[in-house]
């Protein structure tokens, strides 16, 4: 390569980088879109809206929540992955489409390890094992005994093939040495409706989606899948306390930007998210639905993504689960 060609290449690189660097200094100067990859009213949507309100105040620009549901979160995730890396289109990502879907789907229109820059987790929560009114089980041991008596006789609902609910049930089968029948639904809402109606027996529901039904007495909670009891359901034991320590599952929701977003923008977003999750009002809103507010720096969040991907990939492959 000649000296002139080298200079031209350097000039072109600078010409591409300079606008991003300049834009980062004034960021944000227009509305930001926070993409929720699930329909309105779901857990991710419930968490996204108070976070967006707080970000709007701290960043001085509207943060608009936009729902792009479908394919267990992968449609919304793909939209963000292919958006401009300028900080104006962000993903409220979840364990599903970032850590699980890459192994579940034969092909994806994005690569979670290359197409995103994690900013911060904003909340995490466990699943809760709940049974409907037709199941006479007061404890996890009772339910497991029934499952062993009638292999595949118990039905476990989920929000879809390859969802967190589904994979937690797969983990339960492995750890407890039982076989149950998986009944996938098109979303957690319809699954919980059928569960309360007695049409299916049990479900590893996300805690925020089920806590109101549990407190109303429409569902009976047997155990939570976190490392400690939930403040929202202090009388419900953990899976570890109930004899199955291997069934440990927590789901996170976090803000993720497209790869290539300037570091200055990532840092500004991270600090704004830290302020948001430390706000007493936000903490109260999230705790009320059984979610634990939390902040993780970008590098720590990236490490969690890698670890979760490795764990769920191994389980999915072992169970032979595939989603077309």
From TrEMBL:
Listed name of the protein: LacI family transcriptional regulator
Family classification: Belongs to the UPF0065 (bug) family.
SUPFAM superfamilies, sorted: Periplasmic binding protein-like II (SSF53850)
UniProt KW Signal keyword: yes
One of the Pfam families matching this protein, by short name: TctC
Keywords: Signal
Keyword Kinase appears in the UniProt entry: no
Domain of life assignment: Bacteria
Secretion signal span: 1-23
Stored InterPro entries: BUG, Bug_dom1
